[in-house]
Amino acid sequence: MSISEQLTYCTTKIVSYLQDGNQSIGTGFFMNFNADYEKKTCQPVVLTNKHVVAGATKIQISICKADGYNNPLDKEKFVITMEDYKIINHPDKSVDLCAIVIAGVEDVIRNSSIKLFKGSFDTSLIITDAEILECSAMEDVIMIGYPDGLEDAYNNKPIIRKGITSTHIKNDYNNKKEFLIDMACFPGSSGSPVFLCNENSYSNKNGLHIGSRVRLLGLLYAGPQHTSAGDIVFDYVPTKPRSIIHIPNNLGLVIKASRIMELEEIFKEFT
To answer: Where are the alpha helices (DSSP H) in 111-232?
Structure first.
């Protein structure tokens, strides 16, 4: 598979069933925290925004099925509904990031006859400080998720969007560990991973490089939007329709991936 195709197996649509009987939709992606490949241990989670699962009585995720040779069966998916689940929030209340613990789900699957093709990665895919310094102010980025809840349901695939960084990822936008992207960000996109993804060649401050580059930069959580009164407000990318009209202006706020590593540190307490 190409790199971008591999990445499409790393996300899941999250359907949150709310206490008022409504549903909200967002995006999550699979990650293995504290992976130790020699011991073959890790802590599997789904990363998303706090507001995606806030107030949910149960949540639903899905994973692509696999055949006996570990090949993906793209037209078949395994839907998992979790009513008794654990969420670990980033300790900073201003950081809209959380991890849904799925170790118990994976244990059940492992002990059954179900075979799944779940893409996931660990924090080694996160861009390093040294790599950030080599980046340009404008980098091509992709975001993978479920805008407006859309997906290729027949082939069980998310939607890939492409844009550019609107602020340099080395800078903390408005003194927060965030940066802006120029990309249409619609309801359902909350929690979508944002990647540097160059499959053949790329340029940075040191010139042209032949080869692939893929790095996790962070995850979308909010963006500037126009209200019906004509004001511009920074708000969560909503996960369900609202009575107040907010019109996205094709910019998105991304939580830097370094925040994910802060969350991973908390999970070390559970080892």
So the answer is: 129-134
* 271 part of a folded domain: no
What is the Cα 158 distance to its own chain's centre?
A: 11
C-beta of residue 45 within 8 angstroms of C-beta of residue 266: no
CA atoms within 13 A on the CB side of 155: 8
Distances (CA, A) of 172 to 33, 47, 158, 179, 185: 25, 21, 29, 6, 20
Domain boundary among 123, 156, 189: 123
Contact predicate 42/36, CB 8 Å: yes
| Distance in angstroms (rounded) separating the CA atoms of residues 154 and 251 | 30
Q: What is each CA distance from 92 to 50, 67, 98, 142, 177, in whole angstroms? A: 11, 42, 11, 27, 12
Burial label, 40 (beta-carbon count in 10 A; 0-12, 13-18, 19+): exposed
Per-residue pLDDT of the chain (271 residues; tens, 9 = 90+): 888 899 999 999 999 999 888 899 999 999 999 999 888 899 999 999 999 999 999 999 999 999 988 899 999 999 999 998 899 999 999 999 999 999 888 887 877 888 999 888 899 999 999 999 999 999 999 999 999 899 999 999 999 999 999 999 999 999 999 999 999 888 789 999 999 988 877 777 777 777 788 999 999 998 766 565 555 555 555 455 444 455 667 899 999 999 999 999 999 887 5
Does residue 191 lie within any of the structural domains? yes
> Residue 55 has which token pair?
């107030």
Residue 20 lies in a domain: yes
